[in-house]
Amino acid sequence: MLDFEINKQNCTRCGLCVADCPARIISISEDGYPAIAIEKEVVCYKCQHCLAICPTGSVSILGLDPASSTILAGGYPDPDKLETLIKGRRSVRRYKDENLDPALLQKLLEVAWHAPTGVNSRQVRFTVLDSKDKVAQLRDAVMTGLGRMVKENTMPKEMGSYANFLRIWENHNIDILFRSAPHLLIASAPLSVATPDPDCLIALTYFELFAQANGVGTLWNGLAKKAINDLLPETRHLLDIPDDHLVGYVMVFGYPDVHFTRTVQHRPALIHRAL
Ligand SMILES: Cc1cc2nc3c(=O)[nH]c(=O)nc-3n(C[C@H](O)[C@H](O)[C@H](O)COP(=O)(O)O)c2cc1C
User: Fold this and answer.
1) Chain segment 161-210, per-residue pLDDT in tens
2) I want to staple 257 with a disulfide (CB 3.0 to 4.6 A). Which of 64, 94, 197, 270 is the partner?
3) 242 confidence band (pLDDT: 50, 70, 90)
4) Phi-psi region of 230 (alpha: psi -120 to 50; beta: other; left: phi over 0)
5) Tens digit of pLDDT for each residue in 48-94?
6) Distance 219 CA to ligand 1 centre (A)
7) 196's torsion region: left (phi>0), alpha (psi -120 to 50) or beta?
8) Closest C-alpha to 180, from 270, 96, 265
9) Pocket perturbation via mutation, ligand 1, pick of 180, 220, 265 by most ligand atoms within 8 A of CB
10) From the CB of 10, is ligand 1 less than 6 Å away?
């Protein structure tokens, strides 16, 4: 049941909900108000565009009260500032030895979870290490696993650099794998959804930008992803990542111990105007 309800006192019958429904299942019923026929409910994306587009807040679906939505008018960031954020965002590889404020961490995750997903599957799962002690525990497990591979000579040749990372950690306490970040985030999604890979990457991209807007540094971490997902898949179990999930990517984050003063200057964008 979709619980598609129209507040007939406020509905102006403008038809915007009908026009924007991606599944095209809303129609004007005999009484002149929008409705969804029961047999069409099954193809609803549950995207809530009908609720979001209604100028008078007269549409409710899935039992949601439109009054609980945030009003958009005037709420978007200034495009110049957003441009500076996109251009000024940098990979952070040095972090303060400090956990994030838990309320901020929760907010970053909840906001990032609004990222779009293919056919609105909304199955991206955030696995988060919410303290530096937990990252340390993961690092111990990974370094122990790498040590075992080195000892047993089972490290694949093309992954030889991981033996170096282990050595650098053991000899110099320098953590190339996790950058001594206090937090780690993994986005995963069931392999059965339409677009697990992009869903995870988009969610992490939203997370990164919102994090950096909040003074939190982030680093896309391919080295950690390979270690967790490919080299030492048992760490997936340690982290309780379901077997039927694709690990989209791994990101570390925390308060930065580095401050960038200006943007970098990339060469012109590769833009190919076809046809
Ligand atoms: C998919 C992806 C994986 C990455 N993996 C790592 C990594 O494992 N370790 C690391 O130090 N940097 C990693 N980086 C960071 C890149 O090296 C960095 O984005 C690039 O050098 C440009 O720097 P900037 O992000 O500050 O603009 C990764 C970036 C991306 C997008």
Assistant:
1) 999 999 999 999 999 999 999 999 999 999 999 999 999 999 999 999 99
2) 94
3) very high
4) alpha
5) 999 999 999 999 999 999 999 999 999 999 999 999 999 999 999 99
6) 6
7) alpha
8) 96
9) 220
10) no
User: Tens digit of pLDDT for each residue in 111-125?
Assistant: 999 999 999 999 999
- Report the atom number in ligand 1 closest to the C-alpha of 223: 8
Q: Is 221 in the pocket of ligand 1 (CB under 6 A)?
A: yes
- The fold adopted by the segment(s) 5-68 is Alpha-Beta Plaits (3.30.70)
How far, in Å, from the CA of 91 to the mean position of ligand 1? 6
**CB half-sphere exposure, 275, CA atoms < 13 A:** 0
Q: Which of 219, 247, 249 to mutate to test the pocket of ligand 1 (most atoms within 8 A of CB)?
A: 219
Q: Please, are residues 223 and 271 in contact by the beta-carbon 8 Å criterion? A: no
The three-state secondary structure class of 133 is helix
Residue of 134, 142, 120, 106 lying closest to 189 (CA atoms)? 120
Question: What ranges do the domains of the chain cover?
Answer: 5-68, 80-254
